Amino acid sequence: MQKLQQQTIQTTEIATAKTHTITDKKQIAPQITQIDVIAPDIATKAKAGQFAILKVHENSERIPLTLVTWNNKNGTITLIFQEVGFSTKELGKLNIGDAILNIAGPLGKPSEIKGYGKVAVVCGGVGTAAAYPIAKALKETGNTVISVVGARNQELLVLEPEMQAVSNEFYITTDDGSKGHKGFVSDVLKTLIDKNYGFDAVYAIGPPIMMKVIADVTRPYKIKTIVSLNPIMVDGMGMCGACRVTVGGQTKFACVDGPEFDAHQVDFKELIQRLKSYVTEEKSALQTHRHEGGKCRCQNQ
User: Residues with Cβ < 8 Å from 224, sequence gap 6 or more?
Assistant: First the structure.
């Protein structure tokens, strides 16, 4: 794996830096970047399970990102994102000292953190970034936390030591077997259930198909299962309806009613279909990004 690149602004400089300035940036896996951003209003109110929406500049798309950690003392928040499309690649080009135009948050309902008893936290890919603050809060509340973290391969595992630190038991899976169990997170969860672990709740966060499979695994056992959904989102305040999902036969807005829902009530087929709505446009925008050296065409109009 290529050497991780990291840049940092000294703590003494943070107090005088402009709001929404990037104070720390590092590549934590191929195409996966972690940044710390000055956002004191968000840092003082954030709770596990919430997210923020940001715009890199005036002509950018709005990008929803989970709040991974927050520091009340420095007034900073930590965000993790995968550079896969036009907007995330645009964000990835910002460096230490650059400012993001605006960030709204914290948005969404916080996770329901309480004393469940024994909780499985199952996550895959960059979903681990969203799972970490939840696992941490659950552990701090006195729950026994069993974490199962998965990725396509060893290089794409993120926050491994952080997740292990907030877990009573910790399991890794990779699709190719390069680390941990060869297979999927659902395989490990099913094995633990069959070993009579007696889970009181399961949190699943990751690609929609992964969350659907986890819901299918836990449904026969009637284990309370919660998923954090990632539908197409625009305003993040319940006005546009872009993030609508069907839960228990009713329309819900993930931005204000969620993002967490009862996994056994979610219409995953509809969610997966809607996530494919703008695939053509996304590919076109990405090609434009590559053709123009990463510069937004609309800036030159």
Answer: 116, 200, 201, 202, 262
Confidence (pLDDT) at 300: 47
Give me the numbers of helices (H) and strands (E) for the chain, helices first please: 10, 17
DSSP conformation letters of 101-139: SEEEEEESPPP-----SEEEEEEETTHHHHHHHHHHHHH
Q: Is the dihedral of CA 275, 51, 131, 6 positive or negative?
A: positive
DSSP three-state, residue 299: helix
- Residue 293 confidence (pLDDT): 54
85 pLDDT above the threshold of 60: yes
Q: Class for domain 118-275, per CATH?
A: alpha beta
Domain positions in the chain are 6-107, 118-275
pLDDT at 301: 42
**Cα-flanking dihedrals φ and ψ of residue 292, to 5°?**
-100, 20
- In this structure, are residues 78 and 50 in contact, taking their beta carbons and an 8 Å threshold? no
What's the pLDDT tens digit per position in 154-167?
Answer: 999 999 999 999 99
Burial degree of 267 (CB within 10 A; 0-12, 13-18, 19+): middle
Residue pair 154/162 in contact by the 8 Å Cβ criterion:
no
Tens of pLDDT, residues 200-240: 999 999 999 999 999 999 999 999 999 999 888 888 888 88
Core vs surface per residue 10-34: b (16+ CB within 10 A) or e:
eeeebeebeebbbbbbebbbeebbb
Q: Are 45 and 26 in contact (CB under 8 A)?
A: no
Question: Of 269, 240, 236, which is closest to residue 254 (Cα–Cα)?
Answer: 236
pTM of the model: 0.88
CATH superfamily label, 6-107: Translation factors (2.40.30.10)
